[in-house]
Amino acid sequence: MLTAIWAILIFCVLIFVHEFGHFITAKLSGMTVHEFSIGMGPKIFGLSKNNTTYNLRLLPLGGFVKLEGEDGESDDSGAFCNMSAFKRFIVLFAGAFMNVVIGFLIFAIIFSNTSLIASNTVGSVVEDSAFEKAGIKEGDTVVYMKGEKYSSSIHSFRDITLFLSLNGDSSATITFNRDGNEFTKIIKPTSTPDSEKAIFGMTPGRYKKGFLNTIRLAFWECVFVIKSVYLSLWWLITGAIPASSMSGPVAIVGEIGAAAKMGWQSVLNLAGFISVNLGVMNLLPIPALDGGRILFLLIEKIRGKKMNPELEGTINFVFFALLIILMFIVTVSDVNKIL
Fold it and tell me: How far apart are CA 109 and CA 312, in angstroms?
């Protein structure tokens, strides 16, 4: 029951935030908004105000804002299709942007209530480790890591662990800051005696609590999640990870249940991850997603004339149907994993 409550609450809030981004920017842009719905399927409750219907629907798996002229031509001066490309872009982009903003706020809440947050500053160095052999000392701050398989700027300890997991035991070029000066060393990760896992041989320092640190940490956590999403997509495309590793709503509910057992901070952290993930995925240049519609806007600007609204609507419908089929396949896979 607790898992169900948390799952419904998280899904509804994140969907509301996303659709509210579309809704409020459409209203402010003077567009005609016919409907603002949270959930899909049969209507549970609804009301109308200022020519817009507000509905709560049965299934908490999505939502939508219905705009005049969104998928076709219209003579209405407030129709989506009759607005400038800039206004249409703002409306399309606003949903994903709101999801990232909410993710940022969630991470800020978590960090403001956590006193021990691992940083990219070296807290201590293990004797005879890769870091010690390279001359890296306590108090040094790692700012960049370059390896044979992966390179990245470093802003948190999570960036360091991600680099090590991707680069493995290959040599790495480490750039670190010491007393305002930058130094670069090439090091070879070592392995623990009882494990083949590559390590650098350091423990992270801790960030001090404070408003500015909280804001900075929340920002870089959002960046880390965005980077992780794109890396995961690239691994799926290249076959580095199997397609069976994809997860849908059923698996997400299971993760929410596991997080709930560890406390509210774990649930909030997962909600922040899901929110930023949702924003990033919606901006992918795939028709039927916000990013696909933005792609059509870009094509329009390059061509110097609008695309055929009926053709664009048909393409969006076809890809929406394909996404539904993909969601069904992933859901069946999630259920099979549970069984």
Answer: 41
Share of the chain above pLDDT 90, in %: 41
* Strand ranges for the chain from DSSP E: 33-49, 52-67, 118-125, 141-147, 151-153, 172-178, 181-187, 190-191, 198-199, 202-206
What are the φ/ψ torsions at residue 94 (nearest 5 degrees)? -60, -35
Confidence label for 192 from pLDDT (cuts 50, 70 and 90): low
The β-bridge partners of 49 are: 52
Helix, strand, or coil here: 39?
Answer: strand
CA 24 to CA 91: how far, in whole Å?
8
User: In angstroms, rounded to a whole number, what is the distance separating the alpha carbons of residues 307 and 104?
Assistant: 36
Average the pLDDT over 40-55 and give the result.
91
How much is the pLDDT for 195? 54
The answer to whether 225 touches 233, Cβ cutoff 8 Å, is no
User: What are the residues whose beta carbons fall under 8 Å from the beta carbon of 24, sequence distance 6 or more?
Assistant: 94
pLDDT at 327 over 90: no
Closest CA to 172 of 192, 140, 138, 142: 142
Burial of 324 (0-12, 13-18, 19+ CB in 10 A): exposed
**195 CB-near residues (< 8 Å, 6+ apart):** none
Greatest extent of the chain over all pairs of C-alpha atoms, in Å: 75
Angle between helices 211-238 and 85-112 (to 10 degrees): 120
Beta bridge partners of 38: 56, 63
Catalytic residues: 19
36 to 16, 18, 215, 256, 279: CA distances (angstroms): 10, 11, 32, 27, 19
**Can you spell out the DSSP letters for 258-289?**
HHHHH-HHHHHHHHHHHHHHHHHHHTSS-TTS
- Per-residue pLDDT at 96: 95
CA atoms within 13 A on the CB side of 98: 20
Instruction: Identify the three-state secondary structure at position 163.
Output: helix
